[in-house]
Amino acid sequence: MKSLHRVLGAAVFAMALASSGAQAATWAASSPATTSCSASNLFASWNYGSYNFNNDVWGPCGGVAVGPQTIWANSNADWGVWSDQPNTGGIKSYPHIGYTVNRTISSLSTLSSTISATTPGGGAWSSTFDVWVGNNAHEIMLWLNYTGTAAGCGNVKPISYNWNASGCAIPVYTNVNVGGATWNVYRGHNGANMVYSFLRTTKTNNTTINVLAILNYLRNQGWISDLVVGDVQYGFEITSSSGGMNFGSKNFSVTAR
After folding, report:
1. CATH of domain 2-256
2. Looking at the DSSP assignment, which residues form a beta bridge with residue 79?
3. Which residue among 24, 41, 142, 193 is least crowded, i.e. fewest CB within 10 A of its CB?
4. Would you say 29 and 70 are in contact if contact means Cβ atoms under 8 Å apart?
5. What pLDDT sits at residue 19?
6. Coiled-coil stretches, from where to where (predicted)?
């Protein structure tokens, strides 16, 4: 039986790489359909220079059944993921790339990031930055493209303290122009840390974000203080991608000085 599982796993891995166009990827890792938090490669990772990749299939660790997923990478400027997540509730994974800053907000004169992505036409997901500050006590999510709405409705929604009668998250502020874009801003707690979600009012797969400006905006609101910036991550938060869908990332970089 174990031999059969290895054969089937190899077949899924090969099909995933073929469908992603990443047959010659420098690094790749595949995780299985599972309900176990200890299944193989759920958190497979790879370092490329100052950048780190993680498959980050965390759904089973929160009691959510997941489908198979393959992450692949050639460099910070060329990576992606094939994911086949069931059409059920709950976030299944956040395959991502990360860069560790490890400096206080006030010590930075520049903190920016550039991304060019490809995303599927269906499913339920968000293409998002995840910025961690204050020893992971605060999480800043910058939603660039997503299958829900900027008004906090649809099949993916931000974490929020407040909800309306229709089950939509209620923003704290709307049409905030900061960091090179216009956002609706949400605030809430996920049980482990504070979450500030910025949903871009005009969705995009190609942009440069002034992350430092957004952090200073949060400081001006009194929501965070002059904390240490940990990781700046970018990836795809996937709720469903039934049948297998491809997500790609090009030209990702972080500038911190």
Report:
1. 2.60.120.180
2. 73, 249
3. 24
4. yes
5. 52
6. none
CB-based burial, 131-146: b 16+ in 10 Å, e otherwise: bbbbeeebbbbbbbbb
Report DSSP letters for 96-137, one per residue. Answer: EEEEEEEEEGGG-S-EEEEEEEE--SSSEEEEEEEEEETTTT
From first CA to last CA, the distance across the chain in angstroms is 53
What are the residue ranges spanned by the domains of the chain? 2-256
**Other residues' Cβ atoms within 10 Å of the Cβ of residue 122:** 12
The Cα 185–Cα 173 span in angstroms is: 5
| pLDDT tens, residue by residue, 34-50 | 999 999 999 999 999 99
- Band of pLDDT at residue 24, cut at 50, 70 and 90: confident
